Amino acid sequence: MDWSIVIIILQLIFLEGVLSIDNAAVLGAMVTPLPGDQAIPWPGVLAQIGHFLNPLLGKQRMAALRVGLLGAYLGRGLMLLLASLVIHNPWIKIVGAVYLIRLAFDDLSENVESGEGEETPVEPARAATFWSVVFMVEMMDLVFSIDNVVAAVSLSDKLWVVMVGVAIGILTMRFAAGLFSYLVEHEPVLYKAAYILVLNIGIELLLEEIWKVEISDWTRFGVSLGTILLAVAYGRFKFLHRPLRPVLIWISQGFGHLNDVINWLLAPFLGIFKLLWKAVRLLFPKRSRAE
Predict the structure, then answer these.
(1) How far apart are CA 206 and CA 99, in angstroms?
(2) How far is it, in rounded angstroms, from Cα 179 to Cα 68?
(3) CA–CA separation, 188 vs 183, rounded Å?
(4) Top mean-pLDDT range of 90-94, 116-120, 243-247
(5) pLDDT, averaged across the chain
(6) If you ran DSSP here, which 8-state letter would residue 240 be given?
(7) Mean pLDDT on 86-102
(8) Span between the terminal Cα atoms of the chain, in Å
(9) CB-CB neighbours of 101 under 10 Å
């Protein structure tokens, strides 16, 4: 038995775990608004298949992570096959970073209540349909996989070894995401902390690719863990609210203004997309069931 391969696989599992603490936190927070006691709302054409899959997938919140698990394997596999393309094309990381920062701004720009009451809880009515959450989970997995795969291929040039290590690491991350989703219910402040992690990752990617700042895996792990611990401390210790809440409100409003600028810049592109979509619907009208 080649023990060097076993050691590499163990290193890959550990590396995936270190890099995935923020991944698990974000994915766990994303599925939290979904009900944990309702079945998946399958579209009409998939209702029959859904009848057989429901016992395997479970209720909506856990099902979103389980469906996302398949997408994670497909995404990591695709990124592994395209690893050389990712490594030699920094713009892919930059696009991923911009996407993460935009997503963080969209969530963190919500104003915090200025009162001294409890933290704003996770909002179940946050336009979070099951399939929209699954789509967002898949998109986040794809972006997160960029860095993980680049780090993984640096440990071994054998594709199957990398895939085994990454596959086990993804499975571990999904269990961690389920645990984080449970923790968010008891510590609502972790919901916002998850999107601060998204912002951290986006900024780290930009620092690496544009300004060539080298950030070690342990530094990233420390920043992610520190963010979570600080968020929990803020949620638990009420005496921190008086000095920190005005600062958080000011930062939140700043994110809101930046978000408005981004929306203004994107408005022409969104307008063109909407016009194209209307044109497609006019060219291919939806047929009624009677037809």
Answers:
(1) 11
(2) 15
(3) 8
(4) 243-247
(5) 77
(6) G
(7) 80
(8) 64
(9) 20
